[in-house]
């Protein structure tokens, strides 16, 4: 056993630095010295509310899952499980650990395995540890060796990038309440068309639905670069989990189209069922990722080297990181 420093959440906005014992990696595990962690919206929800949607924290929780680090130890079977791994490698952690025994795992849909444990999530008890630690032990099957072109910082971003690939985004119209984020997306090739929503403080359900219809109508009047109107779209990716955005997504989708539910927010929603049914708008849930890390790594390398994919030069992923904080204790000032 060795001493290992980690950050634990004991209640809303109550983060504590602790030193706990860390064992050597099990036979099927590797040990990773964490070099970079990027914060997810779920980390913020847990920090602010001690819950994430309907998931309540039931014991002190170590936060963080978007991560990369240096491989410092191998379990006795780790090289057999993942032959590419060597001490000193930079690796990204795929932070969902499924059972590998159920029908869903057998069909490669391990992201919805009922027994899956996910780093920094309160969904299972005891909670599965997060990565805001000096070192973690992790199953060798679920670490990915990074090419030399990728820094640990970009390696941590592979997790949200895998979420995007699993959802299936292509040409993007980006809608937000923050003009700065929209401008950043345009300047860096992350969206083709943008629209900034001005919150109006709707309170009743009817006011909220009216605002959603108005927002969808204004989005439809936007123009692509060739001058054609956006109109209603075939597929909307709802990435916030809020009721207002979900309603606007439904109204912005053409008949027979799809709303892909990416964001996790409120545990329950009121939906305009008549409009959904009459226009056969499909609501498609998507949960994290499965088998998406390899393409995320390939895309990140192309972004870093300037290689084109499908004749398109990719934007820089590194620019998505706006602030850097050094050391575990910095978490107390950056949340």
Automatic annotation (TrEMBL):
Keyword Metal-binding: yes
Cofactors demanded by this protein: Zn(2+)
Top-level taxon: Eukaryota
Residue intervals of the Alcohol dehydrogenase-like N-terminal domain: 27-147
Coiled-coil annotated spans: none
Signal peptide: none
Protein family: Belongs to the zinc-containing alcohol dehydrogenase family.
Protein name: GroES-like protein
Organism: Aulographum hederae CBS 113979
């Amino acid at each position: 056993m060795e001493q290992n420093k980690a950050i634990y959440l004991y209640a809303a906005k109550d983060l504590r630095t602790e030193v706990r014992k860390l064992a050597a990696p099990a036979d099927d595990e590797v040990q990773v010295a964490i070099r970079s962690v990027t914060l997810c919206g779920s980390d913020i929800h847990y920090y602010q509310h001690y819950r994430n949607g309907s998931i309540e924290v039931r014991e002190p929780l170590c936060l963080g899952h978007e991560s990369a680090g240096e491989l410092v130890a191998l379990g006795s079977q780790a090289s057999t499980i993942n032959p590419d791994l060597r001490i000193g490698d930079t690796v990204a952690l795929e932070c969902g650990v499924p059972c590998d025994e159920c029908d869903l795992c057998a069909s490669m849909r391990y992201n919805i395995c009922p027994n899956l444990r996910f780093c920094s999530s309160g969904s299972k008890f005891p909670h599965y540890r997060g990565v805001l630690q000096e070192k973690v032990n992790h199953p060798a099957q679920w670490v990915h060796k990074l090419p030399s072109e990728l820094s640990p910082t970009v390696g941590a971003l592979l997790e949200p990038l895998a979420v995007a690939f699993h959802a299936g985004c292509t040409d993007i119209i980006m809608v937000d309440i923050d003009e700065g984020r929209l401008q950043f997306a345009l300047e860096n090739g992350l969206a083709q068309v943008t629209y900034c929503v001005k919150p109006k403080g709707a309170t009743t359900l009817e006011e909220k639905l009216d605002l959603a219809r108005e927002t969808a109508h204004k989005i439809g009047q936007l123009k692509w670069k060739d001058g054609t109107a956006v109109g209603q779209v075939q597929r909307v990716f709802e990435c916030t989990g809020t009721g207002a955005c979900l309603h606007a997504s439904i109204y912005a989708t053409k008949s027979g189209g799809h709303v892909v539910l990416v964001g996790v927010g409120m545990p329950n929603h009121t939906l305009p069922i008549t409009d959904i049914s009459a226009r056969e708008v499909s609501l498609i849930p998507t949960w994290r990722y499965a088998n998406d890390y390899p393409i995320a790594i390939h895309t990140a390398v192309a972004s870093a080297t300037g290689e084109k994919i499908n004749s398109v030069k990719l934007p820089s992923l590194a620019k998505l990181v706006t602030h850097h904080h050094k050391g575990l204790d910095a978490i107390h000032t950056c949340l």
